[in-house]
């Protein structure tokens, strides 16, 4: 019997699609939802399932930003054979994304037992939701929002890329929240910070999904729930991306900060009362 049913996969796909790119922690929300549905959050197959359906959300990014990605990838390939093209920002940006992905890959492989074990606890999720909210609020207040996407540098990409490690080690911190907060501290405007977060998430999340596929299939999750969860995640994530870009163009991140604190505090209450298991 599959560890996750098709019906549960639909619910988890919706949660993943809505929360993957919002700075509220998709991992945290998935673990909370799994806990409420009595799905063991630290089961290897469940952890694998969560990573695999992220590929649906990443596919939504690839489709939504297809023109941008095509431009950047084309510039990279041209630069490989034509030295004069290597001064183009898109060519350099492609290399920056590759370089900025290496730290999270190395930490992910080295810390896999911790990530799938003690750090998968819902207590960690609750603390990370609240702690990440403080970081996000401070970053939004500190940032001068004066730099656009064309002003990004190698240093920006590396610092923002490395910040993904926080979300990897502390589910609930939020990969989007960590990357956007770091970008804001570096004085990028909110739209530039959000777009940079999207682009840096493509290789990291795609790689994680492919890597975890064997565990998800081999340890108890059937192909049908995986397929359904991934498809639902794609559809919902596409709509979520479009909404988020419009929202951050006119609003601060305060709404997300308040939401995260409420969810984190609520989760602590549920855990303390024994309503759900950690």
UniProtKB/TrEMBL annotation:
Keywords: Antibiotic resistance, Cell membrane, Cell shape, Cell wall biogenesis/degradation, Hydrolase, Membrane, Peptidoglycan synthesis, Transmembrane, Transmembrane helix
Transmembrane segments annotated in the record for this chain: 46-66, 93-115, 121-139, 192-211, 223-245, 257-276
Record's catalysed reaction(s): di-trans,octa-cis-undecaprenyl diphosphate + H2O = di-trans,octa-cis-undecaprenyl phosphate + phosphate + H(+)
Topological relation to the membrane, as annotated: Multi-pass membrane protein
A GO-annotated cellular component: plasma membrane
EC class (word): hydrolase
Superkingdom to which the source organism belongs: Bacteria
Coiled-coil portions: none
InterPro entries given in the database record: UppP
One of the GO BP terms on file: response to antibiotic
Entry EC no(s): 3.6.1.27
Compartment(s) where it occurs, according to its Swiss-Prot or TrEMBL record: Cell membrane
Predominant subcellular localization, coarse grouping: membrane
GO molecular function: undecaprenyl-diphosphatase activity
Record keyword Cell wall biogenesis/degradation present: yes
Misc. remarks from the entry: Bacitracin is thought to be involved in the inhibition of peptidoglycan synthesis by sequestering undecaprenyl diphosphate, thereby reducing the pool of lipid carrier available.
Family: Belongs to the UppP family.
Function: Catalyzes the dephosphorylation of undecaprenyl diphosphate (UPP). Confers resistance to bacitracin.
Protein name in the entry: Undecaprenyl-diphosphatase
Lineage: Bacteria, Bacillati, Actinomycetota, Actinomycetes, Kitasatosporales
